[in-house]
Amino acid sequence: MYSMVYITTSGVEESKKIATTLLEEKIVACANIIPKMESIYWWDGDLEEDVESILLVKTRSDLVDKVIDRVGEIHSYQTPCVLEIQIKTGSEDYLKWLEDALSGH
User: Fold this and answer.
1) Which residues are 86's β-sheet partners?
2) CA 7, 94, 35, 37 torsion: positive or negative?
3) Which of 5, 33, 74, 84 is the most exposed place for a label (fewest CB within 10 A)?
4) How far apart are CA 32 and CA 101, in angstroms?
5) How far is CA 79 from CA 51, 63, 89, in A?
6) At CA 11, angle to CA 9 and CA 13, rounded to 5?
7) In this structure, are residues 67 and 22 in contact, taking their beta carbons and an 8 Å threshold?
8) 9 vs 13: CA distance, rounded Å
9) Is the distance from CB of 7 to CB of 55 less than 8 angstroms?
């Protein structure tokens, strides 16, 4: 089973830093960065507006807890958004590549 992890960050630089760390540690196979989104959310009782980036990483489901823990250690946010999206099916060739890329872990 495979998963995609959705992570919001303060911007592209933080997304790159987190992605590079996760890739170097071989706990994800691929990272995609969507540079800019506008976010509106509640924080400490106030409605906040901010510009953030989206970081999407692909991994095996058994590695998601490691990804979540590692992101929590290096993320600048006090409460980072790190959510697992399970992949039920996909291109056989892509899933094989994903498995091969993570074979060292």
Assistant:
1) 3
2) negative
3) 74
4) 15
5) 16, 20, 30
6) 105
7) yes
8) 9
9) yes
Give, for all 105 residues of the chain, the pLDDT tens digit.
999 999 999 999 999 999 999 999 999 999 999 999 999 999 999 999 999 999 999 999 999 999 999 999 999 999 999 999 999 999 999 999 999 999 876
Residue with tokens 């992949």: 87
- For 53, the token pair is 């980036």
Q: What are the backbone angles phi and psi of residue 51, rounded to the nearest 5°?
A: -110, 130
Sign of CA pseudo-dihedral 68, 74, 75, 80:
positive
Which of 79, 72, 34 minimizes the C-alpha distance to 52? 34
Three-state SS string over 47-61 comes to: EEEEEEEEEEEEEEH
Provide the residue type at 22 as one letter: L
User: Which residue type is seen at 89?
Assistant: T
